[in-house]
Every structure is written in structure tokens, then in C-alpha cells.
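FAQ: What does a multi-protein file look like?

Like this. Sequence, then C-alpha cells, then the next protein.
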Amino acid sequence: MYAQSPFHINSGKRCVKHNTEVGGKKKSAHLGGYAFDVKCENSADRFRLVRCFLRAGFVRMGIYKTFIHVDADPSNPQEVIW
């Protein structure tokens, strides 16, 4: 059983113009709809959310000071956290 964990999505699928405006990578997983960024501003929430995303089957994550990038792009290396 998974604990309920509400979260705020900062960014989901992006068009090329918006991706450029926000400084996204040229081959961003957001462009294909494979990624989303979740607001997260403290260590306890980061731990809770990472645990939930791993339990849900996500195996690509970037952990930043104010958000977590969650990525399911099959063309990129799997089972990585940066």
C-alpha cells in the first residue's frame, strides 16, 4: 500500500519555445512528455517524494533545491539520480 502524497507539478510537457525560455536542454524529456518537475523545498519532503516516485516505478530523477525532476524517457540511461 502506498501512502498518499500530494504534490505540486511546476512543469510538465513543454513546447520547444517554452523549453528554450525556461533554459531547458535541447533534447529535454519534457519535449516528448516524458518528464515533470515537482515543487519541493525541504529535505523531509524530498525524501518522501523520492520514495513515492521510486515505489511508483520511476527510475530517473534529478534532485534540486526547489524541485525534483521525474523522468521516464526510455532513450536515456535508466536507474539514475542526479
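And here is the next protein:
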Amino acid sequence: MPNKPGSENQDEILFERRKFARIDGTFVVSYTDITTQERKSDISQTKNISLGGILFTTDKVFSSGAILKLRLRLPDAPDYINIKVRVVESRQRVKGLLCETRAKFISIREEDKAYISKVVESSLKKRKKISKDGNSEIQD
């Protein structure tokens, strides 16, 4: 894919396509592939999250378009957040052991979206404070 004029690299192009701010974050997530007969659930963790989607580790590669049911645990949420997602991309990172799966939210309750928004906004504020102070430590 050619770069846009004035674009430094591929990451910059990908960033421009995103509608929502994305933050790095490690949260507990369980997932089940509901497009197959196998209803096995597995527990893992997120790598990053936004109001529109999520990147998390999985134990296998999922086909693009697969529908997964996620149960996500976030700070301040009284219970797990249930989300239905469509797999955008899934890649093996460590052969036979670790994959990364990117998925887009397709069904989420508004109150659960508010918890994600709160986590994203909080992280962005901390990041801005760090860059403004030039400090690597976060002050509460």
C-alpha cells in the first residue's frame, strides 16, 4: 500500500483511519467463538482498546469476520462487560502458543461503552500529564 503524500510510514496511515483514540492496556478478557459449534471459552488479556475495538492475545488464529463474544474486566465496572466483536485480523506471534487478534465492536451496551470511555479518557489524561511534565512517573 503506497504512503499518502507527507506520510512518514505505514503506522501513520493506520492511525489516520482510526475513529477512536486507542490506549495500551492490560485487562482480563475471556472470549468464545460463536461462529463455530465449538463453544470453548479461553481467558487472556488485552493489549490495547478503544471505543471501537480491541487488540487481545488468543491461543489460536481466528478467521477474518469471525464473531466472538467477549467478557472484559475493567476498573470501576461492577461486573464483566459483555461485547460481541467481529475479527478484523488475527496473526500468530509465537508458533503454536500466542496470537494477536484485532476485533471491532459490533454489539455493546451504552453503559458498558461508558466504562471503556472512562478508562480511555483516564489513560489519555495521564499520558498528557506525563508528556507535559516531561516525567515518566504518574502523579496522583
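Q: Is there any per-entry metadata?
A: Some entries carry free-text notes. For the entry above: The first helix runs from residue 10 to 17.
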